[in-house]
Each structure stands twice: as C-alpha cells, then as structure tokens.
Design goal:
Layout: H1 2-33, H2 39-65, H3 69-72, H4 79-108, H5 112-132, H6 136-139
Helix pairs in contact: 1-2, 1-5, 2-4, 4-5
C-alpha cells in the first residue's frame, strides 16, 4: 500500500502543479486583459483547488503510513530528511490554506477584476510555496 500511495502522490503532483499553474496564468491573463470572469474561469480555479486538496489528502496518508517516519525523527539535522518530513508537509499545508483563502475571497468579490486578483495573488503565493518545498532530488 505504501508504494502505491507514494507513486500516486508523486504522479498526481504533476497534474496538481499543471492545474495550479494554469489557474494562475489564466487569472493573470484575465486580470491584465480586463475581461469578465466567466464560468470557465471559475472551473479552472476550482480544478486547481480540487487537485491541490487531493494532493494534500494523499500526502497526509503517505506521511502517516510511511515506514520511514519513526526512523527519520532523530535525523532532522540532515537537510534532506528535514525537507521531506518537516518542511515539505508544513509549507505545503500553508500553501493549500492560501489557495483555499483565494478561492473563498474570489467567491465574495463583486467585480471580475477582484475575482481574478484574489485567485492570482493567493494561488500564485501557494504555487511559489509549493515549488519552494518540492524535494527535487527525489523527483528527478
């Protein structure tokens, strides 16, 4: 089970990042061109939100079923272990909270510009945080 969850978490990350980048770029283009916020724009942001939440749930499952967890606690001084077991989960939870806040703020916004702006800012910050804490050595 651990191997399946680990591979799913790694594979789903590509889709989640792609959808998140697409949502950020779409909101930037919508904001800069001053177009109306449509149902298509809403769906793009929603798919980014859903993909990141699925990634979070799978990541939390992986974190708690991993056979490496208890052995790694004493090795937090090593940067790779600290990244994998502390920084990656913590920063990504914060990033997904920001993405969720962006989704909530866009729903309350009255104008298209405000909707695009909240998605661009909060999803963009979330994307930057996620990219900063990906364990790149394990990914490639």
């Amino acid at each position: 089970m651990y191997t399946f969850v680990q591979k799913f978490h790694s594979g789903w990350a590509y889709l989640a990042l792609l959808l998140l980048v697409f949502a950020v770029v779409n909101s930037f283009l919508g904001k800069s061109s001053k177009r109306e916020f449509t149902a298509k724009d809403r769906r793009i942001a929603l798919f980014g939100l859903i993909a990141t939440h699925i990634q979070l749930v799978v990541g939390l499952i992986l974190y708690f079923v991993s056979p490496l967890g208890s052995a790694s606690i004493g090795q937090m001084a090593e940067s790779d272990v600290r990244l994998t077991w502390l920084e990656h989960p913590l920063i990504n939870i914060i990033a997904i909270i920001l993405i969720t806040v962006g989704w909530s703020k866009h729903k309350k916004a009255a104008t298209s510009e405000a909707k695009f702006n909240s998605i661009f800012i909060f999803y963009g910050l979330g994307l930057l945080l996620i990219l900063s804490r990906i364990p790149w050595k394990l990914w490639f």
